[in-house]
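Intended use. Records like the one below are meant for learning the mapping from a protein sequence to its folded structure. Do not use them to infer anything beyond what is encoded.
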Amino acid sequence: MIYDYIIIHYDEIGLKGKNRGSFEELLISNIEIKLKSLMKSCFRESGHITIEIDGKANISKIKEALSQIPGIAYFSLAKRVELNLDSLKKEAINFLEDKEYDSFKVNAVRHDKGFELNSMELNSKLGEVIIKALNKKVKMKSPDIMLKIELSKKSAYISNEDIKGVGGLPTNPQQKVVALLSGGFDSPVAAYLMMKRGCEVILVHFHNKNQASSSVESKITKLAEQLSKFQVKTKLYIVPFESLQKEIIMKVNSKLRMLVYRRFMLKIASEVAGMNKAKFLIVGDSLSQVASQTFENLEATYTGLDKHVLSPLIGLDKREIIEISKRIGTYEISAMPYGDCCSYFLAKHPTLKADVKLLEKNEALFDVDKLVEDVLSKSRVIGF
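Structure written out for the chain above:
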């Protein structure tokens, strides 16, 4: 079967009322950027978005790209048909005759109610023709094949497969956030979930050159590249952290080092956010998963920052996070061994109930502004 159109369906965008049009336009723009020459045109029709493709288009590449664009709930490869009953009968038979199946069901949807038959009547008419022409039987529950008929104002589309998408909302370049990216499982999932909510996510990784430098950076770059598939454009900041980390090690008690590390990282990320007009910081914290993420330690870590911190994983457990990482393609990369700079020279039993005043007292030992400015001046930016 040679397909000439793709029907894009969304869930959440359809609930946006008067703002629905702007979300549809945003999704169309993102599709056009991602597909580029793989498609001929992309436009709105009643109830869905339609993509026109060439009969020789690379379907596998198109499917891969569309399945990773936030805002798309599912999509279908389709044939366009003239909007009349005789054409629908003829094309339904042509569509099914080369496929292997014993039972079928017709599912007609009228996005525009102007057609001469309602959905039930059209299901019945097409079912009768298929039974007579192809000698197949109707099965209402769990048929071997589902023949979908979608009626818009000017055309009809025939398809038989719904391909799952990301869902959520389309990426809005005006909604920038900065996500701290380690090499673990959690932070890539946190970044992805914000992409799914329509944010353009800028990634920041803190790097200690004393720890297997090339392998760590390669891993982080792979994670960023995989995450870039879910948004229109991606920036990765590689921030050198080793000199600052050495100062912290010399001046801060080992039981508090992790929290001081994290507060410096968040301050640096706040500066990156300011440079990029981003509104929030994104972290991969899950409440009480590790020592730095206890109720008290999170409060002490987040207090007094220039930017608000969001943690989309806060109520998830590790199993749930791992399941998402497998689904989005970051699991295998995160599972690669690497040296985490946050675990550098930590106490065996770090504090579980830090006080923000104590952390601020430790920070007063440093020229914070100068240190933050220094590491940012040495950071590198990689685009995807």
